[in-house]
Write a structure and sequence with these properties.
By secondary structure, this protein is mainly α. A two-stranded antiparallel sheet has the order 1-2. Helix 4 crosses helix 10 and helix 10 runs antiparallel to helix 11. It is globular. It starts with a helix and ends in a 5-residue tail after the last helix.
Length: 339
């Protein structure tokens, strides 16, 4: 064997052992990728290094917010206190209807209307639909706001008192979305409480009194279907009349870790404002108090409808909701949660 062959042997053996593989062209599959069937590729997902699809950010956030809102609704309506409040509200039309039925069974008239509220009681014995309006007028000054004050005052402070508020904030909800979910659940309770009064009053009124065409407070007569539509509008207006109080209760709830203290403060403030609203010497302040235009819903039962007081009421409630809702947000987002 020659010296040239001896020197070339190892090099040739090394070249045979490790043949040079040409690099794949850009965009063409490599040998390992080409060996994978197409179906298995789809099952494995995108190859390493490939740009992963960007998930839509709004859909998960919207789904999470909806789930948080649903959780708050379940929490509110599962409480025995909430069911007790709704039961009391449902019992008020029953008591009012039985009292009017007893008083008018011998052809007598309803007494006790001193001009302080809408003249609905006199109409109940002639048309059972008016029991819904009379019940709303009877519950709006105290019973309905008290229920809203209890639920709103307990929204944040109740969670802090039971020690669950910190666990809620551990989840990726964010304080702003959590506060919005709580306020939305209180607003839903406003609608539920109002509808509870109306439905109970309609059932009792249709059972105890005659039902027919509706004579409005202005003296005009409309059909029963028109009267029912006006009743639904009144129910929505009454529920909207409580959004300012709901925001106020939520703000008070962010100031303390005691649920009972927040509820008591909200209801106490409600009673104080109602007293101030009834003192004639304080008439300068009264147009700025949240319950001042509450009974303006009676103007729906006129032809034509008088919207002045109704619009003032809605604007005042929106102002209270904006002011105290912002105050609740500022307090809650900067608060040191220790419970």
């Amino acid at each position: 064997m020659s010296q040239a062959e001896t020197s070339a042997g190892p090099a040739d053996a090394q070249g045979a052992a490790a043949p040079q593989v040409p690099a794949p062209a850009a965009g063409s599959p490599g040998p390992r990728e080409a060996a994978v069937p197409a179906g298995e590729k789809a099952a494995r997902g995108p190859a390493a290094g490939a740009a992963a699809p960007v998930p839509a950010g709004r859909a998960p956030r919207a789904a999470w917010s909806l789930g948080l809102f649903r959780s708050e609704l379940v929490t509110v309506f599962r409480r025995a206190r909430t069911m007790a409040l709704l039961g009391v509200l449902a019992g008020v039309p029953l008591l009012v209807g039985i009292a009017i039925r007893i008083e008018t069974r011998d052809g007598g008239s309803v007494a006790g209307n001193d001009g302080g509220g809408p003249a609905f009681l006199e109409q109940v014995s002639n048309n059972g639909l008016f029991l819904a309006f009379a019940s709303l007028a009877a519950t709006l000054p105290f019973f309905l706001p008290m229920a809203i004050g209890v639920v709103g005052g307990d929204a944040v402070a109740g969670e802090a008192a039971t020690g669950t508020l910190r666990y809620l904030l551990v989840a990726p909800a964010g304080r702003t979305r959590l506060l919005l979910a709580k306020y939305a659940s209180v607003l839903v309770f406003c609608v539920a409480a109002t509808l509870t009064v109306v439905l109970s009053a309609v059932i009792v009124g249709f059972s105890l009194f005659p039902v027919g065409d509706v004579t409005l407070l202005s003296g005009d007569t409309v059909s029963l279907s028109d009267g029912i539509l006006r009743g639904l509008l009144i129910a929505l207006l009454v529920a909207a009349s409580l959004i300012g109080l709901a925001a106020l209760g939520l703000f008070i709830s962010t100031l303390t870790d005691s649920g009972i203290g927040a509820m008591a403060a909200t209801v106490g403030l409600l009673i104080t404002v109602q007293i101030v609203n009834s003192i004639p010497q304080l008439h300068v302040l009264q147009p700025y108090l949240f319950p001042h235009y509450w009974l303006s819903f009676a103007d729906v039962m006129r032809a034509p409808v008088i919207w002045t007081g109704i619009l003032k009421n809605l604007a005042l409630q929106a102002l209270y909701a904006a002011v105290f809702g912002s105050a609740a947000w500022a307090r809650f987002t900067t608060r040191d949660i220790t419970a």
